[in-house]
Amino acid sequence: MTFDAIGIAGTALTVHRKWLDAVSDNLANANTATSTAGDAFQARYVIAQAGAGTTGVYVQGAAFGDAEGRLAYQPDHPLADADGYVRYPDIDMSSQMGALIMAQRGYQANAAVVDRARETYLAALQIGRG
């Protein structure tokens, strides 16, 4: 049972770490401008899937945001087209910050589960020695 808890929490740690990676990439590229001839940075979203039985949770894959992005009128920008537009990713900073907080809290909660399960296992070993 203790090993199951450690294994399940470990799979969740991996999913939350990948979620944190995706959100940090999205936040880092939220203001990345491209020319209107190219695609905007595509936000990455992690798709998680429950494992069979009590095997935990896994990253099934990733979904990507719209490459169309949003156009901004900035005629002085070096990448501006003839009409003065540049392309930015369509990333909502507030939703990304909310996702960042949820992923961080999920990671912390699962790390605490691993710590508690380890402590329980060590206490059980001490009882067996006594």
TrEMBL record:
PROSITE patterns xref list? FLAGELLA_BB_ROD
GO CC, sorted alphabetically, is: bacterial-type flagellum
Organism's domain of life?
Bacteria
Q: Give all residue intervals belonging to the Flagellar basal-body/hook protein C-terminal domain.
A: 83-127
Per UniProt, the keywords (alphabetical) are:
Cell projection, Cilium, Flagellum
- Domain Flagellar basal body rod protein N-terminal positions: 8-32
Query: InterPro entries of this UniProt entry?
Result: Flag_bb_rod_N, Flagellar_basal_body_rod_CS, Flg_bb/hook_C_dom
Q: Name one Pfam family in it.
A: Flg_bb_rod
The processes (GO biological process) annotated in the record are: bacterial-type flagellum-dependent swarming motility
By sequence similarity, the record places it as follows: Belongs to the flagella basal body rod proteins family.
Q: What is this protein called?
A: Flagellar basal body rod C-terminal domain-containing protein
Q: Which species is this UniProt entry from?
A: Agromyces sp. G08B096
